[in-house]
Amino acid sequence: MNPGLKKRFGNAERLRELGLLLFILVLGAVIQVRNPAFLRVSNLMSLFTNTSILAILAVGMMMVLLTRGIDLSIGATIAFTGMVTAMTVARFPQMPPALAIAQGTAIGTVIGMIIGVLVAKFDVLPIIATLGMMNIVRGMTFVVSGGRWVSSHQMPNSFKAIATGRTFGLNNLIVIAIAVYIVAFYFMNHTRTGRRIYAVGSNPSAAEVSGIPRRRLIFLVYTIMGGLAGLAGVLWVARFASAQGDTAMGYELQVIAACILGGVSILGGVGKISGLILGTILFGILANALPLVDVSPFWQLGIQGVTVLVAVMANAMVLRNTERSALRRRAI
Amino acid sequence: MEDTRAPEIAISAQRQWSWKEFFFQWEWLLVVVLLIVVGANTWLSPYFLSLNTFIRTPATFLDKSFIVFPMMMVIILGKIDVSVGSTVALSAVVMATSYNAGVPMPIAMLICLLVGTTCGAINGVLIAKFKELSFVIVTISTMMIYRGIAFIILENRASGGFPGWYAFLGWGEVAGIPFMMLAFIAVAVIFGLLLHRTSFGRVVFGMGNNATACRYSGVDTDRVTMTVFTLAGFMAAVTALFLTSRMGSTRPNVAMGYELEVIAMVVLGGVSTNGGMGRIAGPILAIFIVGFLSFGMGLANLQAPVVLVVIGLLLIVSVLALRVRFTVKKKKPVV
Question: Right CATH number for A15-331 from 1.10.1740, 1.10.3470, 3.40.50, 3.40.1350?
Fold first, then answer.
């Protein structure tokens, strides 16, 4: 490789992002060739609408992963907040949609705070704490609803309009996702707290020694994740116009997968909003465009799993190579 | 001089036996909890308290207990394997499909074990050879892949129609004792010996405490990691054999959430998620606590979701309780 090119792409992070972009383009081209309907505006819009809930969740999950944590409970949180909100609007049809969103977000935040206390205060392993909470919250969803569904005709139109209405010519879900990303971009890159989250993830003890309130930040991260999951729960129910006990089962895996495709390291401290956008778009294509090219929906789980595994392994290989070449350079 | 030092070390390495130490053990707490659960069940149903119940009821929940033992080793290593439920599904689906494709049942059962072992081995190799990847992400992605393959094979159909003798595995009895119970006892003894009486077991505990030190003392740590994860896959296939036999047929979505129940049993059994700690008696007691608890909640007409909540609570509470115990003990020098 010539030195100029090396300098420009020397940053492994940038190289990874470029590779991801290239992969998205290639995948898009392949799908476009197989099915010309793919790149139509209407199809792209529905793809983005379907992906926006995933994208919102991915922001929270990135923060959790940055602190070396993981949250497996968000699928259950989505179901629970969605169910409670749907039951509320079914009971009080006059309720303004903004209030419904606020209610769902608040419930999610409380669930996130419980996990935050367990992880930050009691040092429970994140995977254990969230696995336990996943069961509890999922069970609560069934208990609260008595196993019944809240279906489309029980929800007022104003509530369903959250997911069908448009703002600035874009579907509301896309607008909300964009808003979340703008706030998250500012928060992660330009506020002290955001930068401290990175610091806690890349070296917890160094962060603590330099006076960063590590535990409080970990608590904050799970709280934000819970709040976003609550928001996503309301949006989910509004979008699919039905709330069931098994809503979003296993969705946490897809969110984690999207984060990892976007270059967020599960070992903490590494991950950017820009990568996250690419990761969620790639994941959105995998989840939404495969049926367009006649890939059976039963292949989806396997394809997603393989993509994640290949992404993390490729990442590890690239990292090994850069480290090795750095060592070699030092030796000379 | 050397003569006096050597026996001193030998004595200090031997744990001082005391009544207080003996009764201040996690396992006694579990025994008390188990008695409470049994008491509550007796109170719920007058028919509960009989020898018959204790011999036959366990067959309703013992299928997943086979994974508890290797999972215990995985957690002692300081790792976690969340792919076991998917491994159960994949091995069961492959077995059913190959049987229905004309493979004789005994060979299909061997294939089942082979598939599970391979799944476990893949986990083990990935975790041992790619140290940059955390066990969490490896097992999460294989969790998706294994179940994904099961879905690709069977889509949303069920597969069954096994020969009559195959039901013996899950329903059969030898001298009035369910075959599953006997298999469980055999597996428990084997794993107890493996963990507490062999050098392999000592190495597993050692790696949980300090993997680097183990490697520098000449232990092939990669091979131990791979062996433990392969064992987890193999035992998941054993579970698949018993589960399928009990249900009579299989689907790609069987054994969903088994990983959680198994991990909950191990943690409730006093195995620290920090690794390096635990005794076989704890998880065995935990299997029966969770099992009889779910059975009792069935007696009380509580729906399955309530059982979910209780198991989740149990997991979190036992982790918290273990932590409290650990901090209490830390004040004394730990051998």
Answer: 1.10.3470
